[in-house]
Amino acid sequence: VRDARAHDDDALWDPDTVDDNVLALILIACHPVVPPDGRIALTLRTVGGLTSEEIAAAFLVPVPTIQARITRAKKALAAAKVPFEVPNGAARDERLASVLHVIYLIFTEGSSATGGDDVIRPDLAHEALRLARLVVQLAPIAEAYGLLALLELTAARFPARVDRAGRPVLLDAQDRRRWDFSAITRGRAALRLAVGTSGLGPYGIQASSDECHDSAASADT
Question: Are 98 and 40 in contact (CB under 8 A)?
């Protein structure tokens, strides 16, 4: 999203302008001419950089199914001659649910990698967090705040998620002193904004559960 500080002091920040290339591409790819499962698969593959195998694991379907969805999505966009431009207003708003879902799935792959030797892929998780922060600036709605809260509160536990050998550490065995308490504070703030905007949706409800984990003195409390 355009930062007013990057321009002269008299310039006004336009909340409808998307200057981030990745978010802009996600908005374009999440066109309603493509069925939801196809647009999300296409966006994860072409913009999120996930492999067909990783996307298939996220959807719990065979790899050929994902590949077919991506192919159909590309054909639908081509047949509809969708312009390569960022939507505004109502056209943008109707894509937000898909955009949030894409960001959620990118973060999910980052926080619990389905392939490779690493338990966590910080590059993907942090990119999803960055995108979630941009979305709440562009569209300060409850679900956007709920997603941001969920991602912050989950990422807060990353420092204690693996041991020195890179092996996963379960929640009840984690050293809570290693958690990122700044991320917990940001997550709680986003959760309050979600509640104050219009109540909690699916992402906000998950965030509330994570807040309970992050606030507890131990796994037993």
Answer: yes
